[in-house]
Design brief:
Elements: H1 2-8, H2 14-32, H3 38-48, H4 54-79, H5 88-99, H6 103-137, H7 141-152, H8 155-158, H9 163-177, E1 180-181, E2 188-189, H10 203-221, H11 239-244, H12 246-260, H13 267-281, H14 295-318, H15 324-335, H16 344-347, H17 349-380, H18 385-404, H19 407-425, H20 431-453, H21 458-467, H22 469-484, H23 487-502
Antiparallel strand pairs: 1-2
Helix pairs in contact: 1-17, 2-4, 2-17, 3-4, 3-15, 4-5, 4-6, 4-14, 4-15, 4-17, 5-14, 6-12, 6-14, 6-17, 7-20, 7-22, 9-20, 10-18, 10-19, 10-20, 12-13, 12-14, 13-14, 18-19, 21-22
Length: 503
């Protein structure tokens, strides 16, 4: 009875519904601005909600969370500038689609699959949270290490067609992620005595520079080129289109929930892995991946929305935050005298069901706000470049500075922008470098923990990869990813496809 009251109460509370809608609207706009992440918005909001009731505070923060993850895709599609790390993979094919004049159709479909991924995450959170949380707890450091390694193998998929250049850019990214203070020993690495390098390099700063500033420099190189006229006559996808992509959205959403439930990973890793599985599994897309495949937008967007529900699973059942935003929500619960963890569902089941209800209302609000905003967003790409590009630069500077209130980060962003411009000019994709910077700390810290648990002995460390069922499964997945990128495997697939077509 208490659970039912907790679930239904927000639907009949006008104030809570209004706060969720306000949070979604604010989250969409904040998420669309590079650097102004949903984590930052949630952390700022929590200071305003100290004197509020817990329900109202949760309503606003949940709304911002749902809207902010969606908003990051808008600028990724329209300007090739991801508003958040979780939207990096969306831009690979979303931006080429926008340049073909299909921004409206793409954002409309993204909105629909985002809702599907979000609802999938909420459903699993509601019916299977304890089971998923117990499964996530079985992940040892060696499994996180393999997961990060699996992410790095995506370099072969997003390296722009040249694996050597992709591996080189990814290796530089991993090296840059090591700059600063060693989190295990406290020693300084690759700082060369420079105090400005002690804090390391923020991957958000690198992302804004490598994607945003380099894109502006590229666009201004040919500023006289006319912007593509957008087709806005078919924004809401029909049922046939939606159901034809439903299996991919389902697979990606489930992957997102699973990755989101692993503490310390989140939507960015989920989106990249989902993009890779889409590229491997989808046969004969309308356009090749990297040149405007709609499947390359559906997979990451469904996954990163599924990760929202997944991130709540360890938070509500174990008291372990799934990502940065759920860590802030844990803080809000503590402020209001609650203790997130196994006893929360026993002592305060209404809170659990209230959060599920708020996420559901947030997705409904996102569907309405997202579809109503498509035409307005799509018009951005038709604005002359000499007007929109300076605005992008200003927003990039504001977003970068706001990360740590540091001018040094702004200089880093400009430096990464110039580096990204020359990388693109010479045929190097910037995505592998960003991927290396994001996954480098996950790889580094879990490799050390895995080695420590093996007594710093190389043989026990290596044998541990086949000694546990879950680890063995991940090891087999990595072996498959490596083999599938060899010329022998590709040649075999082509011969198989040719044989099937002839028969």
């Amino acid at each position: 009875m208490e659970q039912m009251h907790g679930f239904l109460a927000p639907f009949f509370n006008i104030q809570m519904v209004a706060l969720v809608w306000l949070g979604v609207l604010a989250g969409v706009w904040v998420g669309a601005i590079p650097g102004l992440s949903v984590t930052m918005a949630a952390s700022l909001l929590i200071s305003f909600t100290f004197s509020w009731s817990l329900d109202n505070a949760l309503a606003l923060i949940c709304g911002v969370f749902v809207g902010g993850v969606y908003g990051g895709a808008i600028t990724a599609i329209l300007l090739n500038i991801p508003g958040a790390p979780a939207a990096i993979a969306t831009g690979f094919d979303g931006y080429p689609l926008a340049r073909r004049g299909e921004a409206g159709r793409t954002i409309g479909l993204v909105t629909t699959v985002s809702i599907f991924g979000g609802l999938l995450g909420i459903a699993i959170l509601a019916v299977a949270a304890p089971v998923v949380a117990n499964f996530a707890l079985k992940f040892a450091p060696r499994d996180y290490f393999l997961l990060a390694l699996m992410g790095l193998l995506l370099i072969g998929s997003i390296g722009g067609g040249d694996p050597i250049k992709g591996i080189l850019a990814g290796a530089v990214g991993v090296l840059l992620s090591m700059v600063g203070m060693d989190p295990s020993t406290g020693e300084l690495r690759y700082t060369f005595g420079n105090i400005y390098l002690m804090a390391g390099i923020s991957f958000v700063t690198a992302m804004i520079g490598l994607f945003g500033v380099s894109e502006v420099l590229f666009q201004l190189r040919d500023s006289t080129q006319a912007a593509a006229k957008q087709k806005l006559d078919k924004i809401v996808p029909d049922l046939k289109t939606f159901f034809s992509h439903l299996p991919l959205a389902l697979r990606s959403g489930l992957l997102g929930v699973w990755i989101g439930a692993l503490p310390g990973t989140g939507g960015d890793v989920a989106a990249l892995l989902a993009y890779d599985q889409a590229k491997r599994s989808v046969k004969n897309p309308e356009y090749p991946f990297g040149e405007g495949a709609i499947e390359g937008v559906i997979a990451p967007e469904s996954a990163n929305k599924g990760a929202v529900g997944g991130a709540f699973i360890p938070m509500l059942t174990l008291g372990i935050p799934g990502d940065a935003v759920t860590a802030i929500i844990i803080g809000a619960l503590f402020i209001h005298g609650l203790k997130p963890g196994p006893m929360l569902m026993v002592e305060n089941p209404d809170i659990f069901w209230t959060i599920i209800s708020l996420l559901l209302i947030g997705n409904i609000a996102l569907l309405v706000i997202g579809l109503l905003s498509v035409k307005m967003f799509s018009k951005i790409i038709e604005v002359p470049k000499l007007i929109v590009m300076p605005v992008v630069i200003i927003l990039s500077i504001i977003g970068t500075y706001s990360i740590q209130n540091s001018l040094t980060d702004v200089f880093w962003m400009i430096g990464f922008g110039v580096l990204g411009y020359f990388m693109r000019a010479y045929g190097y994709s910037t995505a592998p470098m960003v991927l290396g910077i994001i996954l480098g700390p996950l790889l580094d810290s879990n490799y050390r923990r895995a080695m420590q648990s093996a007594g710093d002995e190389i043989l026990p460390f290596l044998t541990s990869f086949v000694a546990h069922p879950l680890t063995l499964f991940l090891t087999c997945c990595i072996a498959y990813l490596i083999v599938s990128q060899t010329p022998w495997w590709r040649g075999k697939r082509k011969r198989t496809s040719a044989t099937v077509e002839i028969s």
